[in-house]
Amino acid sequence: MGNQKLARLDNIKIKTQLRMVFLVLIVIPIVILGLYSYILARNNLIAQTKVSIQGGVNVISNGLDNNAKRESDVLKFFSYEEDLRYKMEHATEDPFSITQEMSENIEPLIWYFIGSDSNIENIKLYSECLEQSHIGEFISKPTDDIIQKWYEKCSTEYDAIWMANEDGEIYIIKALLDVNTSSKLIGMATLKIDKDSFFGIINQSSYLNNGILLIDEEGNIVSQKKLKDEKLDEMILQEIRNGNLKKDSEGFVVSDKYFLLESDKISNGWKLYYYVDRNEMVADVFSLLSSDIVIAGVIFIIAYVIATLFSRRLSYRIIRLNDAANEIKRGNLNVRINDEGKDEIGELSDSMQAMAIKLNDMVEEINRRNKADLLAKESDIHYREWLFDFVVERNNDILAVVNVENYTCNFITSNAETVLGISLDTLKEDVRSIATAQKAEGADRLDNIIMSSIKSGEAIILEEIKFENVKTGEQLFYRGVVICTYDDGGKRMAIALYDRTQEIKRNHQLQEALNAAETANKAKTSFLANMSHDFRTPMNAITGFNLLIDKHADDPDKVKEYTHKISLASHNLLGLLNDVLDMSKIESGKTTLDIKEMAIGLLLEEINSVISFQAKAKDQEYIVNIEEMEHDMFMGDKQRINEILMNILGNAIKYTPEGGRIEFRIKETPSSSEGFQNVEFTVKDNGIGMKAEYIDKIFDAFSREETGATKSIQGTGLGMAITKSLVELMGGTIRVESEEGKGSTFTVNLRLKAVDEDDVDFWKGHGISTVMFVTENRTQTEQLRAAFEADKIEILDTKNGFEAIHAIENCNSAGKLVDLILINDILSDMTAAELIREIRSKDRRNNSLIFVMAENFAAIEDDAKAAGANEIVQKPLFVSNLKQIFEDISSRAGGTDKEELANPLQGMKFLAAEDNDINADILIELMDMEGATVTRGCNGQEVVDMFKEAKEGDYDMILMDIQMPVMNGYEAAAAIRSLESDWAQRIPIIAMTANAYADDVQHAFDAGMNAHITKPIDIKVVEKTILEFKQ
């Protein structure tokens, strides 16, 4: 029965079947769905709108009512302030009282209300009782027309009144009455409303296209949220003002254009009207209908699928048959046509299948006959291509044959991709892409050259082409030719590129070597020129003053003056040599650091002893500031840090004019590395400064800024280069900021390992149990306090002289001794010397140690010592400085600092190896001055022979030069140590040489020497070294 129904459907046209399906599945459901949606929306939307309007009115009116009450209460608060009202009423007789009341009580309240309540924009007070126009920011006379109008209104109405000015700004005003009768107007308080915050709840309300009106008792609009339809807004406003609103039983005003609900009156007399445009409701209905259309569209798709199933019954077999015919047409003779039908279409399918089989057999026979010929030809072509590519790729040459119509490559050597880094497919698609690897612009680019050659038909020869491999960045150099030719295929282009990379690179290497040699030669010339100038300056002084000594030999004063200047010039020359030597050590990597415990305080003391003297000589202000120094002891190379800071501070003194200012700051901050601290040294001066372009060169060796202000200042230009190298050797940083004419600031940052104090009982061990500080600046003594507290020392803090005297009297009454008193050099009530005399008058046994902490040591030393001070100590005072002072005091008290002999080397006998007669004479004379005798040998072999012939005791020590003829000092020392006698092993051998590198010192020790002294000879260093080995 089902098959019969389907057969009937097959007799009906497909179009008719589809129309029947659409009628049943689309048209009828859409009509039903539309009617249902319309009825449902109409019944529910009005009720939903009323509920939303009612909720919006309740929320907004309650919010506004709460805001109004709160702000009215704020203003009433000021009317209850009796002190304010009383002082305002008597402002004419006593203006100070109202000013004081405002500043101490009222203005803080006003700022509090403004800051805590976003609805309040401002609060101001007005009073006719003021003599002046205003007092402060918040009270003034009512001079404005509208303010005077409000002021008069307050005289008749005492409650809070909500007002609006001409600009639409909202205010609350409140009368301020006299305290006694509360019936006389003495002033007015006003509160300005922040409309954005106060009416924010209105702008946040949104349901459909709703409008909101807020109207005061006089019918004025206080705030309004408008509809999209402004004409409807105006109509609703007019009806509200005319009183034409007709409400239903629920209180709603329902018209054909809008819904409206009126709120109850708000506490300040305002009324709220909430309304909705009915067109929005219609839009909502249309939204529902749109949903229906979407549903109808889905149904339409379903119906279309069903209709398609009916049509495919007939068309499927025809489509398959047509596809098979197309496959045969395209040459696919192995196609299979599967149709089980027995009708005309089935018979046609069988015939096409048989035809395909027959054609396939014929094609296979033809292919079999031609296959051998094709294989032979392909083999020959592949061999020729391989041979060509092999020849070309061996030397990185690139060849290409180009189609001039579309720039595609008919042929390009496969090595192009490897050489240029551009894919072979990209090059074949457009040969002009080769220019992406080219280092050229404009007419020299290969893409432009290729197009130019095609246009002109002329061959273009390229002498040099620069490429850069796109992937590796390798630089490549080529010579090439671009030429157009004609063959059987028409006009073609040939491109040939020949590799010259190795040739060019060899040329470049030769040029770089030549440039390096020229640069080295210039550096050598520059170095010699600098050294020649800077060495000649002190040498000129030495030779010049020697001539003057000969001329004035009979004038002892002049001879003394000239010898002093020769000494200065000699030290200057030695400094230049040391700078060059240091730079040489640094550049050769031979500079090493001597890391050990060091005290910042002692380092600063050494530096200040030199720098403060130099600054004083130029009448400069030298200031030392210590900031947040938690530690005093660190692990570091004290000598090198001293050298760094002395270089920078020395330059600051040198390049700052007389009367200038140099500030030296030290600051300690935590480091990210455990156990380490960042110690920052900053030197700031107001000297001549530097040009901006010289700042980048200041750390270059032999670099000096040549200006009018610096030409008269000598130097090698090595100081800052050495400084930077030493800082970097320590793992630190150095930076400079400078402005010409205003000064420079150098900042050195070193990461140093902090060392905690181990000797916590030091102070008690030196009899210190109570310490008094007399200073107003507590921060300057924080480090000392921490050290005393660690040793549980009692600390007495006083800020001035009178407090200190009072504290000492209390201690005397209690029978307690203050062991150490540290006094600041500047006190607010008396001088340090006056305080010391007062303390000594109450401590007649002088049991207390009194130290004065001074910035200007010389200015206070005489007075303080005369008054009874034990020590004058330089600020800033570190723990290490104070400990050193106590060690010195203990040493003197114990008698360990005995008077040394006038000549500690008296009677000593030395054997000296020295090939230079002048050096030998100087050594003999210097040692003779010390009471010692020197026997000289002119070379190492001679000294060894003299030692062999001597008896034990003939010589106390051997002084050995290094660079000597016949046998050098190392060989001589080794020869002596190799002797069998016990004396040869014990006698001290000291190297005295100009070889000053660390390797030279080590060579001396390796040869068997005991110590190393660097020339030129400093007799104090020689004496100290000899005494270490004196038996």
Please provide a written account of the structure.
It is a single chain. The protein has 1031 residues and is an alpha/beta fold. The chain folds into nine domains: 85 residues, no CATH class; 136 residues, Beta-Lactamase (2-Layer Sandwich), CATH 3.30.450; 73 residues, Profilin-like, CATH 3.40.1840; 42 residues; 105 residues, Beta-Lactamase, CATH 3.30.450; 69 residues, Orthogonal Bundle (Helix Hairpins); 163 residues, 2-Layer Sandwich (Heat Shock Protein 90), CATH 3.30.565; 132 residues, Rossmann fold; and more. It is 50% helix and 20% strand. Strands 17, 18, 19, 20, 21, 22 and 23 form a seven-stranded mixed beta sheet that branches. A six-stranded mixed beta sheet has the order 2-3-1-6-5-4. A five-stranded antiparallel beta sheet has the order 8-7-11-10-9, with helices on both faces. α3 packs across α4. The longest helix has 66 residues. The N and C termini lie far apart (139 Å). About 1% of the residues have low confidence.
